[in-house]
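Notebook entry, structure prediction.
Reason for the run: the old model in the group folder had no record of what sequence produced it. Starting over properly, with the input documented here first.
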Amino acid sequence: MAEVPPDPTASASRRSPEGLIQGLLGALRPPAWVVDETQNRVVLLLNHVLQQEPVATERLRRQAGKPIKVEWGEIHLTLAATRAGLLERCDPLANPPELTVTLTQQSPFDIAQRVLAGDKPGVDIQGDVQLAAEVAWLVDNVRWDVEEDLSRVTGDAVAHTLVGGARRLADAVKAFVARMPRPPARGAGVER
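New structure, fully documented this time:
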């Protein structure tokens, strides 16, 4: 019986910090109630941001009742627009999604690296074209005004200082990420 040599890239990926963290996250699964409550908080945050943009709620109002499924690895969240132009969770079995948005990059590090470099993460979109256009518009045009929300708690001067510091930190991280070499694509072999 022939012995198969070990894959050197597999052991290297387990030894890398990213591989170690991904392995750890894969082994640790949060309880269902934690996932459920986290998804509820995400919906509350999305609705808070949408309420600050009347145009966004008007656009969503036109898509009321149409389920949208968002997938990232094993994480699935199905949302539907309400008549008020906000979002609510819905049961994907009772309401089959009319639009499915799948993040194609599985690694949170790859997604963070792309976002910090100013790129959008890769997505695969399947389903209703009009609904997809509305979701794309929301992603491109709706932004959370963190400084405004923070100023309600801390005051304008403190909020401006904190947000300015966070922006400078984010710019420094973006510059660092931009200088990092990109890993070769999977399946790309080394020339001999």
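Summary: The longest strand covers residues 75-81.
The old model has been moved to the deprecated folder.
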